[in-house]
Amino acid sequence: VMALRVNCQKISPEAYLAILERNAISAQIVPGFVDALLLDKPIVVDKLPGFVDGLVSVQDLGAQSYSEILSLKSCSRVLDACAAPGGKAAHLLEHEPSLTLTAVEKSPERFKRLENTFSRLKLSANLLCADALDAKSWWDGKLFDVVVVDAPCSGTGVIKRHPDIKLLRRETDLPQFAKQQLELLIALWPLLRQGGEMIYLTCSIMREENDDVIRRFLQNQADASVDAIPEKFGLVCQFGRQKLPTEKNDGFFAAKLKKK
């Protein structure tokens, strides 16, 4: 299967499904998702009707579901600190076009993909090729209502799509990822307003990169507390929720932190 995210600013899932059917492409609505479709068979994106015009994007169901964890309001200031290739950030704007969104990406190569995503979808945001850890080099000093940390990780939740991870990853990689993940949370916490929320995400199924990172953060951050995430987002963990990989979605972990 192949998951699509329909751009509800431009077309409804039902209307896009009808376009697919006219093009002999078999797909189905996904219960519980407001803008997702599942193709019965994967196809190259160039053959998706309206792809170049921003009608639709390719995005795993797990990645699509996270937007519902956020408490977004009209005109909220949102930071996506590890934004490339831009699917999650774009999804937020498709739902709430009035957001003031800042999307940061350190890698110049991946930043180009971020720019391409926003250009294709004709979305407006403050896109910055910068190191999220070095906030003084790019932050304007205005606090954010929401900070999203979709942290670099081992990728063990996406082995289905990237089987080479089994060969490339080593056990010694996990402490390095966990160190970087904790550093991101610590560095970005001061950018969040009181009462704001930070969403921590990984596409890992390893406790060392998920619950353990949140536990270490909370031990040293007295003004942070854990907010509940709805049951539909998977198995309950100590500090968040986790979905394991299935035929329809990748595995991921999510935790919501509130600033007291």
**Fraction of residues in β-strands:** 15-25%
Largest sheet: 9 strands, mixed
Distance between the termini: 42 Å
Mean pLDDT figure? 93
Radius of gyration, in angstroms, nearest whole number: 18 Å
- Helix/strand-derived category reads alpha/beta
Tell me the helix content.
25-40%
Number of helices: 7
**Can you tell me the residue ranges where pLDDT is under 50 for at least 5 consecutive residues?**
none
Order of helices and strands: EHEEEHEHEHEEHHEHEEEE
Strand segment count: 13
Shape estimate: globular
Question: How is the secondary structure organized here?
Answer:
Blueprint: E1 2-6, H1 13-22, E2 27-29, E3 36-39, E4 56-58, H2 61-65, E5 77-80, H3 87-95, E6 100-105, H4 108-121, E7 126-129, E8 144-150, H5 165-168, H6 173-188, E9 192-202, H7 211-219, E10 224-227, E11 235-236, E12 241-243, E13 252-259
Parallel strand pairs: 5-6, 5-8, 6-7, 8-9
Antiparallel strand pairs: 1-3, 1-4, 2-3, 9-13, 10-13, 11-12, 12-13
Helix pairs in contact: 6-7
Q: How would you describe what is shown here?
A:
The protein has 260 residues and is α/β, with parallel strands linked by helices. The chain contains 7 helices and 13 strands. The strands form 2 sheets. Strands 5, 6, 7, 8, 9, 10, 11, 12 and 13 form a 9-stranded mixed beta sheet that branches. Strands 2-3-1-4 form a 4-stranded antiparallel beta sheet, covered by helices on one side. The radius of gyration is 18 Å and the shape is globular. The model has no long low-confidence stretch (mean pLDDT 93).
